[in-house]
Amino acid sequence: MALFISLLLIIFQVIDELEDKMIDGGMIIDYHSSDFFPERWFHIVFVLRTDNSLLYDRLESRGYKGKKLQNNIECEIFQTIYEETMESYKKEIVHQLSSNTPEDLERNIDQIMKWIEQWMLDNN
Questions:
Q1: Long-range contacts of 79-83 (CB under 8 A, 24+ apart)
Q2: Tens of each residue's pLDDT in the chain, 124 residues
Q3: CATH of 42-124, one of 3.40.50.300, 2.60.40.1180, 3.50.50.60, 3.65.10.10
Q4: What are phi and psi of 59, to 5 degrees?
Q5: 100, 53 in Cβ contact below 8 A?
Q6: CA separation for the pair 26, 40 (Å, rounded)
Q7: Residue ranges covered by each domain of the chain
């Protein structure tokens, strides 16, 4: 229980530290979970998705083994990050992007850059 409380305190400290930086918008956060970031911080949220057979090989090549490999695969199978994101933010700002191939990566970068450019036009 003490460890859980310590982790919560750290999370709240991180959020407090980022609050002033996030207030003006235009920031990008890359994180593997989203359920503790305030909804007011985000105009759009992207969730990268990967086919499980590709993900397994990708993670294994990075040296993931045992429980860490299993947990990551299970999260993708059960759409854990996507579900958390859908519960944490307005549905209209959450977008899934396929991340299976280098072509997907290029397409995702293009799509995100177009969104950023439009956001800047709309908000400057």
A1: 81/32, 81/33, 81/34, 81/47, 82/47, 82/49
A2: 677 777 778 888 888 888 988 887 778 888 877 777 899 999 899 999 999 989 999 999 999 999 999 999 999 999 999 999 999 999 999 999 999 999 999 999 999 999 989 988 988 7
A3: 3.40.50.300
A4: -70, -40
A5: no
A6: 13
A7: 42-124
